[in-house]
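Known limitations

Structure tokens in this collection are predictions and should be treated as such. Users comparing against experimental data should check residue numbering before alignment. To illustrate the layout, the record for Copper transport protein is reproduced below. The input appears on top and the generated tokens appear beneath it.
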Amino acid sequence: MMHMTFYWGKKVTLLFDFWRTDSWTSYAITLLACFIFALFYQYMEDRRQRFRIISANFRRNYPSPPSAAVNAPLLYTFPTVGGKWNSARFATAILFGINSAIGYMLMLAVMSFNGGVFVAIVLGLAIGYLLFRIGDEDDVSVDNPCACA
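Generated tokens:
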């Protein structure tokens, strides 16, 4: 039967029926795998953000919008090289899909309600943020000064 509250113990079924732990060794390997997947999630999020920034900088190299767009800045769209499907946007979308899948798998792993799995994933996310994403605040640029955007 599945636990519905947090518990601490070495017996865990994680994500799939074949991923069961019954010894401290298999439990430790499972916690290490959760930690590494959480680190990888933050790494992939960093890569996705960098592709997004590259794509945005690539669009900024175009001349300024026509004067009619200045009066309605929220309606203006920047042209993209190669149409709407340039390689930077495509790579960003692929990375978003991979990162979403990893994030949902981490969420489902936490829903095993095992305290060790929860701690391993949270520590992995925090250390991954520290290693890979701590400088993200410097890369953020606000294109739209509207607070609701």
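For this record: The first strand starts at residue 12 and ends at 13. The mean pLDDT is 79. Please report discrepancies through the issue tracker.
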